[in-house]
Write a structure and sequence with these properties.
2 copies of one chain form a homodimer. The radius of gyration of chain A is 21 Å and the shape is globular. The first copy, chain A, has helices at residues 4-7, 13-21, 41-55, 69-83, 97-109, 124-132, 149-159, 180-190, 216-219, 247-261, 266-278, 281-306, 332-341, 375-392; strands spanning 27-28, 92-96, 115-120, 136-143, 146-147, 163-166, 196-200, 224-229, 240-244, 312-313, 321-325, 344-345, 347-348, 365-369. The mean pLDDT of chain A is 95. The first copy, chain A, has 2 domains: 4-39 and 283-392, Aspartate Aminotransferase, domain 1 (Alpha-Beta Complex); 62-278, Type I PLP-dependent aspartate aminotransferase-like (Major domain) (Aspartate Aminotransferase, domain 2), CATH 3.40.640.10. In chain A, helix 9 links the parallel strand 7 (196-200) and strand 8 (224-229). Chain A has 14 helices and 14 strands. Chain A is an alpha/beta fold and 393 residues long. Chain A has an 8-stranded mixed beta sheet with strand order 2-9-8-7-6-3-4-5, with helices on both faces. Chains A and B meet through helix 1, helix 3, helix 5, helix 6 and helix 10 of A and helix 1, helix 3, helix 5, helix 6 and helix 10 of B.
Chain lengths: 393, 393
């Protein structure tokens, strides 16, 4: 009855986890939500009322598929100030969050069985989106410093992927960041291959320490596709993201966007544009960084204090997640079951690996989110988690 | 480089037409836009501010893929009051306009080459959405009173379609409405076949005269899928629509929705819910009907006055469009070129036929929108158009 593409897709495991962890008695490091206390609600409200008064009824009318030109100009301006990149406005398409960008890329690029190289571990939303188009995933390991370039070479040679998916800054799930040198190496390997590199970049502006890294666009200008979003910096519920792509890709994306939903919510595009015009995004982001940095520090210190010594973990310079590696043979899924009995939740590594991973037998990694719990809760949760780990060891 | 599904999709013809007709010196009957003067902007603004004050920062947070429960309850209530239908809230999924409903249906049902029965002429957005999934369209003629049942039987027997797409009330593009008897006949033909009937229903509430017709859901409860939207009754720019589907279809739709964009704009779901709680939708719709009815009447009278006698046209009891049929052998595309020179635009019939139509050689039909021009402009435009038609005859 159903299409092949949807028949074998299981219910999302992470949705189930999030349902469990919505219970307020549970200490949850599972979610990936920005902290609600930081939403600039008063300024968004003021921007909204200004839009009603200045734009009038037209703000409620249908709009174009490309997105509001004013907002696209603001995005181009931000690429210039943050990355010194010149991104033409015509190459920016507004989407319903960057998740829709992933869906549209799957739609325009992938025939059933086409190969997609992807970071391992990798963002589960990308695995879901490309999975629907029956991608043949070719995982390429990432660790501190970035992507395993020799593994990438092998994938390129043996599988001829159509694209490669990356989150090079404060990666979801691992929190790692590619060095500039690694980016250049990856780009050098891809150069001339025709493969499109997708740089999904929701977290780059949330840097607590260290220096900003370059965009892949600098190293591979003709074959880099950028995904961006306001979900982690301003507001998630508006579902506002964008894709930057070369002309011939943009032409197909626009056709796919129109067939998918005509256009993105125009009212909210105008509100975000107004917000960006009237307030300092930098000042707002400073507040986010201050809070997240402190929470991250608390979690890292608690891990150092309570976890057994043979547990590895990343110490990210920004973003929302860190990544724990248990000793080989210890299953994070078993740990999840045990921890839930003590009212602590996290996301086991499993959904961040594709069905082509080498390590499906016993995944010993898991993701911790630190942006949504207060200091005392972080300490308490990590202590409880450490007890479960010790029990398993 | 690109997927098969997108490689051969041409640029949207109607997008090009709308660009042309955006020129303010052109009298445009081409668009499909609600009249902006009717948008309830003051009430939407008040509802928005109430949402900010009552819901607070949580209205800016991520939300669930199903959609806001309050809004889904309001939609269920409306099905009860308008159609006496009992629609369980669990069977309602909020989408980015009903266009996304079409995309999700294509995604979960269609493998390349799967057959889809569709009204002829039919809504071009559905042709685009299913076309991306490489549907094999099987057109079934519609005319005053509804669908050609014997043609439907033939399609069912020879092509085993997975679904059949209909807009049974004030159809886009033709303005026709299926009678209750025709609906029952269509349902009887489909019963037991396993084919899903899609009832896309943006216009039913905009009825100027005659009596409301029954939903297909009454005749074919297990195999009817309903699409709805607030775009024609409240606000288009929010991109708020919904699908009603049986449990096993809903399960797949939800997976596809999550992979497509996580969820629909939560902020605007809350605003529409607040608007529906605080104001009378019926009173608002009365205003729309009064205006559209009068404009439709003006257009019909102008056509009667100016067009040659051998031109057929529909006289819809509601909605936004009427449909003109020129004598055989007269191309509406040629008429379009001629009319544009006199600064009048409409949509030639071509994009409302699929690549499986029998009549691709010389399409003699076209769509006129009457909701966006004032009385004098309607008269002037129809008079100019009649001159072009006479020139061609």
């Amino acid at each position: 009855m159903f299409s092949n593409r949807i028949s074998n897709v299981p219910k999302s495991f992470i949705r189930e986890i999030l349902k469990v962890s919505a219970d307020p008695t549970i200490i949850s490091f599972a979610g990936g939500l920005p902290n609600r206390d930081l939403f600039p609600i008063e300024n968004i409200k003021a921007a909204t009322n200004k839009v009603f008064d200045v734009v009038g009824p037209d703000v409620l009318q249908y709009s174009n598929s490309e997105g509001y030109i004013g907002l696209r100009k603001m995005i181009a301006k931000r690429y210039k100030s943050f990355y010194s990149l010149d991104v033409p406005v015509e190459n920016i398409l507004i989407t319903n969050g960057s998740q829709q960008g992933l869906d549209l890329l799957g739609k325009i690029f992938l025939n059933e069985g086409d190969s997609v190289a992807i970071e391992e571990p990798g963002y589960l939303g990308a695995i879901q989106a490309f999975g629907v188009y029956k991608a043949d995933f070719q995982p390429v390991p990432v660790s501190d410093g970035g992507m395993d370039v020799s593994a990438l070479k092998t994938v390129l040679k043996t599988n001829s992927p159509k694209m490669i998916y990356t989150v090079p800054n404060f990666q979801n799930p691992s929190g790692i960041t590619y060095t500039n040198e690694n980016r250049k190496e990856v780009a050098d390997v891809l150069k001339g291959s025709g493969v499109y590199l997708v740089e999904d970049n929701p977290y780059a502006e949330l840097r607590f320490s260290g220096t900003n890294k370059k965009s892949f666009m600098e190293f591979l200008p003709d074959h880099t596709i950028l995904l961006g979003t306001v979900s982690k910096t301003i507001v998630p519920s508006f579902r506002l993201g964008w894709i930057v792509a070369p002309n011939k890709v943009m032409e197909k994306l626009l056709i796919a966007k129109q067939a998918a939903d005509l256009h993105t919510n125009y009212f909210c595009q105008r509100i975000v544009d107004q917000f960006l015009n009237d307030y300092s995004l930098d000042e707002h982001i400073e507040k986010i960084k201050t809070m997240y940095s402190s929470k991250k520090q608390t979690m890292v210190e608690a891990i150092k204090e309570y976890f057994p010594e043979n547990i590895q973990f990343t110490d990210p310079e920004g973003g929302m997640f860190l990544w724990v590696t248990l000793p080989e043979g210890i299953s994070s899924m078993d740990l999840f079951d045990l921890a839930l009995k003590k009212n602590v939740a996290f996301v086991p590594g499993d959904p961040f690996y594709t069905n082509n991973t080498q390590r499906k037998d016993c995944i010993n990694t898991f993701r911790l989110n630190y942006t949504n719990s207060d200091t005392a809760t972080i300490k308490k949760g990590i202590k409880l988690l450490s007890e479960c780990i010790r029990e398993m060891l």
